[in-house]
Design goal:
The protein has a five-stranded parallel sheet. A two-stranded parallel sheet has the order 2-3. The longest helix has 21 residues. The protein is α/β, with parallel strands linked by helices. Helix 2 packs parallel to helix 4 and helix 6 packs parallel to helix 7. Helix 7 links the parallel strand 9 and strand 10.
Length: 285
């Protein structure tokens, strides 16, 4: 079994939990949130045919998802989202921003042709020190491939070494965010304004990380906490923007529902687990 695959039991339990959350959302909110100007940011990681790997979406599924976004005119760019957050423009309810984390080679080889075919804007958050390195579960992008991506998509920072900002010193934190931004700007000759927290759980970001990012000339940062951007955010809250993970092994019906808010309430699970981990006397793993 590939190191990125999970056990069959864990796979089926994970899929069951996501399906139950989506189906329960239909019962609790059958009409969705169509009347509110909500933006949902989707997170992908890798593309391929790896069985039982929730981080890997097949090219066939990805193409069906992008075709659906294009057909319904739901996709927006990072620039549009930035302008929305600054109060410069409005966006249609149900708008979707596609983001891809880590910077694996399959983004260039498999995802980029599909994004170009359907004219879907997207953001690629790259771990900068990993560029030109060949590591599991697949090789990372080369600098030439990153430059190709930057000519079609938005390239932004996922840190220098993919370490949790919430678990390192202030000095290391500053190095992670400034070194990655400066290298991207030097190599690509573009401004880098957005950051995606590695891992993105509630243990990985806080008021200090937000302040450091703001002082390091970033304007926006994305977590892995589920939910929608429902209104224009204050300058500080722009460093805690939510995203929704798209997993492998799920049909187009699930994609359509999560784009409509079916997994927004998964953040309650994230928050509950976080509170349990912070309980007095609990041993931290």
């Amino acid at each position: 079994m590939n190191s990125t695959s999970i056990s069959p039991m864990r796979w089926h339990l994970k899929k069951l939990a996501r399906r139950l959350m989506i189906l329960s959302s239909l019962v609790l909110n059958p009409f969705g949130n169509a009347r509110r100007s909500q933006i949902r940011v989707l997170t992908y990681h890798r593309f391929g045919d790896q069985p039982r790997d929730p981080f890997c979406v097949t090219p066939e599924d990805f193409e069906a998802q992008m075709a659906w976004l294009a057909r319904h005119k739901r996709a927006v760019s990072m620039e549009q989202v930035e302008r929305f957050l600054r109060g410069e423009i409005d966006l249609p309810a149900g708008s979707v921003l596609v983001t891809i984390d880590d910077g694996y080679q399959s983004v260039h080889d498999l995802a980029l042709p599909i994004l170009k075919k359907y004219k879907i804007p997207a953001v690629v958050f790259v771990t900068v020190s990993a560029i030109d390195h060949h590591e599991d579960p697949e090789p990372h992008l080369t600098w030439n491939e990153v430059k190709t991506l930057a000519s079609h998509l938005t390239v932004a920072s996922h840190g220098w070494t993919h370490r949790s900002l919430g678990k390192i010193s202030l000095e290391e934190m500053r190095l992670e965010v400034t070194r990655s931004r400066r290298m991207l700007e030097e190599k690509l000759r573009i401004p880098v304004t957005a950051f995606a927290y590695p891992f993105g759980t509630m243990a990985d970001f806080n008021a200090t990380t937000a302040t450091v990012l703001q002082e390091s000339q970033y304007q926006f940062a994305f977590t892995s906490q589920h939910g929608a951007i429902a209104e224009r955010e204050s300058p500080l809250n722009r460093f805690y923007l939510p995203r929704i993970k798209v997993e492998g092994g799920e049909g187009l019906w699930m994609f359509r529902l999560l784009v409509g808010g079916g997994l927004d309430h998964w953040r309650l699970i994230d928050q509950t687990l976080w509170k349990l981990q912070q309980s007095p006397g609990r041993v931290q793993g």
